[in-house]
Amino acid sequence: MAKPAKRARDTYHVGNLAPQLLAAARTLLEEVGPTKLSLRAVSERVGVSATAAYHHFQNRNELIGQLAAQGFSELARALQHAYNDGSGLDKLRAGSLAYLHFARSNPALYQLMFGPEFTEQTMIPALQRERLAAFGELKRMVADTLGQGPDSSEVRKASVAAWSYTHGLTSLVIHGLLPGSVESSDAHFVDRTIEGFAALVKQLRRNH
After folding, report:
1. 94 and 51, same domain (yes or no)
2. What's the total number of domains in the chain?
3. Residue 190 has pLDDT above 80, yes or no
4. How far is CA 56 from CA 16, 33, 43, 126, in A?
5. Does the first or last residue of the chain, that is N or C, have fewer Cβ atoms within 10 Å of its Cβ?
């Protein structure tokens, strides 16, 4: 008689269970959103016991914190790859396109990363580190554009402004709150809004 196939819970290797759990959590996040994401649901998706999952993640907060940290790490790499030696506007455009493309490709993960699930008190160290790393990539672009050190006051202010613009535009687009946001390309929205900013700044300088 042939032996029955072993269940996943009988065959998983402890050393690679954590990545499997994170991968399953990411899939479930896109399917059901963050409110229904739990260690029990993730362990059932992988085919292991909840007890096995708790060996790798102490609680739900650690699981979603690691998931959000993964998202910020990927966002930082996307900004790194987008970096170029063009003008300031070229850098802003490339960074904004990379940012928007990442969010469009991972809408549920993006919303988790910037959602209300985390506070300064509940944010795990890995998430804090990866958030700062992603912001650091944006600061690098701004610092190069302004020709100043990354810790200068002007760079810090400009970096917050650049992130506010990019995050605001991205949130409006992925929520479908801008006309044509479904049909239009990312480049269309980035180019249009940068042109609008340039016109606004030009007019403000005239009136100053």
Report:
1. no
2. 2
3. yes
4. 10, 22, 11, 14
5. N
